[in-house]
Amino acid sequence: MTALTAPQGAHHLAEGAAQRVDLAKGADLVQSIDWAAIAPPTIAAVAALVVLVADLFLAERHKGLLGGLTAAALALAGLALVPLIGDDRATFCLTAGTRACSYVADPFTLTVQFLVLGGAFVTALLSMAPVRQERLPAGEFWFLLLASASGAALLPASRDLATLVVALEVASLPAFALVGLRRGERLSSEAALKFFLSSVAATAVMLLGVSFVYATTGSMHLSTVAQALPGVDSRLHTLAATGVALTLVGFAFKTAAAPFHFWVPDTYVGAPVPVAAYLSVIGKAAGFSGLILVTVRAFPSYADAWGPALAVLAALTMSVGNLGALRQRTDRAHSAVRLLAWSSVGQAGYLLVPIAAAGYTEEPDRAVGATLAYALMYAVVNLGAFAVVAALQRPGSPGRLDDYRGLVRTHPLAAAALAFFLLCLAGLPPGIVGLFAKVTVFQSAVDAGLGWLAVVMALNVVIALVYYLTWTALLFRPATGRQPAAPALPRLSASLTATVALTGVLALAASGAPQLVLRFAGTALF
């Protein structure tokens, strides 16, 4: 072997050092994944694939097992949140420059994921009997429910615009199919088509806005966008402002804020009742968590623009929703699901109030906490109300409001539960948790100096009392001699009874100690 000369040795040493630097750079690009942090949405997604494959091999008489598997997977995904409590974790981060991450498991993320996965679990319990009674394709239904829940659970953890949009679409696309699963029914097909077209339009607008924001800031990560927007070149100010506006308009569609709410009543009525319940809670939670992230985290420098805009949207949404619900009379021409659909639009207006207030205050975290507290209350009692409706609605029946006349005589426990849920939504005792949640939202508007919005909210609360109390009184009102007797209501199945009992117990516990809900939501700070 020939010996190397000094110059040759130095040359080889330099090449070796350069190779080690290149290898080190390459190693930086291969980052480890925090599997514990991403476990909740991952478990739901993997379970969806398992259900899809199992559906191919199970005999028709054993398809009921898929519902139990779905509920177990959602419960396991919820339990996966426990090890993450009290610890901020991030993964899928940039390896150079600022340490911006695409997935963050902080208190805000965990609170929304708890709401989403808990709501999806209750929806699974709520769906077991209707899937069997309405002969819905079990494998498809449970797969779509898990797939949508995984997207909804991913969304609050998303910290870049691309992941936000992908998570929102993963949550939305399976929901289109869930709405249209009543094959051969005109109302179901129309509802799915209207939901699909409105959502596609919202996504197109949102993607256009996101592209404008990326063009002006050069980044998709929310933290980087927030830092770059104030320093955008003056020639790009109009483009940046347009991108912010279009992104917010896209999320306004997703949250069913007026005037982008037109798809809600027909979609809820045409969908199976458990799917309507899912959309009213989990779909709304996903949309609002995305709206909070883009406003408070990505666009704080435009708070003087989106704050007033969201305040106007909040006033308009709660007014349109409550007036629409007020038009639903207790005769045989209106359905309970349609009233709950308009009610959900009104409730969306209340949820918008603290987010609008965040644009006027130097402590937006408190406003976020008020929104989450209200969302937690709304999720429990609204799912409970839908559970009673699903339990008492006969297959193929439109579920008229008049069918609930005198319910206390035939189903006293169901009547008591529904009355309690309606009083919670109205914010009246004994539904103390609803009252406290409304006071918290009202206080956020007052603290932000939005006195006019607080007045509008107070007026809408009074309007909502009319239709909530009218329905509640109907439960205890005997049938008149001039009215034909309503058809006999069905017996409550075990799964639906368990759902009503579970939501009722949670609502009672929250009403007994509403400060626990407020304190839990108040910890969901960024």
Automatic annotation (TrEMBL):
<keyword id="KW-0520">NAD</keyword>
<keyword id="KW-0813">Transport</keyword>
<feature type="transmembrane region" description="Helical">
    <location>
        <begin position="275"/>
        <end position="299"/>
    </location>
</feature>
<feature type="transmembrane region" description="Helical">
    <location>
        <begin position="305"/>
        <end position="327"/>
    </location>
</feature>
<feature type="transmembrane region" description="Helical">
    <location>
        <begin position="138"/>
        <end position="155"/>
    </location>
</feature>
<feature type="transmembrane region" description="Helical">
    <location>
        <begin position="105"/>
        <end position="126"/>
    </location>
</feature>
<feature type="transmembrane region" description="Helical">
    <location>
        <begin position="339"/>
        <end position="360"/>
    </location>
</feature>
<feature type="transmembrane region" description="Helical">
    <location>
        <begin position="449"/>
        <end position="476"/>
    </location>
</feature>
<feature type="transmembrane region" description="Helical">
    <location>
        <begin position="65"/>
        <end position="85"/>
    </location>
</feature>
<feature type="transmembrane region" description="Helical">
    <location>
        <begin position="413"/>
        <end position="437"/>
    </location>
</feature>
<dbReference type="Pfam" id="PF00361">
    <property type="entry name" value="Proton_antipo_M"/>
</dbReference>
<feature type="domain" description="NADH:quinone oxidoreductase/Mrp antiporter transmembrane">
    <location>
        <begin position="158"/>
        <end position="463"/>
    </location>
</feature>
<keyword id="KW-1133">Transmembrane helix</keyword>
<feature type="transmembrane region" description="Helical">
    <location>
        <begin position="372"/>
        <end position="392"/>
    </location>
</feature>
<feature type="transmembrane region" description="Helical">
    <location>
        <begin position="236"/>
        <end position="263"/>
    </location>
</feature>
<keyword id="KW-0472">Membrane</keyword>
<feature type="transmembrane region" description="Helical">
    <location>
        <begin position="161"/>
        <end position="181"/>
    </location>
</feature>
<keyword id="KW-0812">Transmembrane</keyword>
<dbReference type="InterPro" id="IPR001750">
    <property type="entry name" value="ND/Mrp_TM"/>
</dbReference>
<keyword id="KW-1003">Cell membrane</keyword>
<keyword id="KW-1278">Translocase</keyword>
<feature type="transmembrane region" description="Helical">
    <location>
        <begin position="193"/>
        <end position="216"/>
    </location>
</feature>
<comment type="function">
    <text>NDH-1 shuttles electrons from NADH, via FMN and iron-sulfur (Fe-S) centers, to quinones in the respiratory chain. The immediate electron acceptor for the enzyme in this species is believed to be a menaquinone. Couples the redox reaction to proton translocation (for every two electrons transferred, four hydrogen ions are translocated across the cytoplasmic membrane), and thus conserves the redox energy in a proton gradient.</text>
</comment>
<dbReference type="InterPro" id="IPR010096">
    <property type="entry name" value="NADH-Q_OxRdtase_suN/2"/>
</dbReference>
<comment type="similarity">
    <text>Belongs to the complex I subunit 2 family.</text>
</comment>
<keyword id="KW-0874">Quinone</keyword>
<feature type="transmembrane region" description="Helical">
    <location>
        <begin position="35"/>
        <end position="58"/>
    </location>
</feature>
<protein>
    <recommendedName>
        <fullName>NADH-quinone oxidoreductase subunit N</fullName>
        <ecNumber>7.1.1.-</ecNumber>
    </recommendedName>
</protein>
<comment type="subunit">
    <text>NDH-1 is composed of 14 different subunits. Subunits NuoA, H, J, K, L, M, N constitute the membrane sector of the complex.</text>
</comment>
<feature type="transmembrane region" description="Helical">
    <location>
        <begin position="488"/>
        <end position="510"/>
    </location>
</feature>
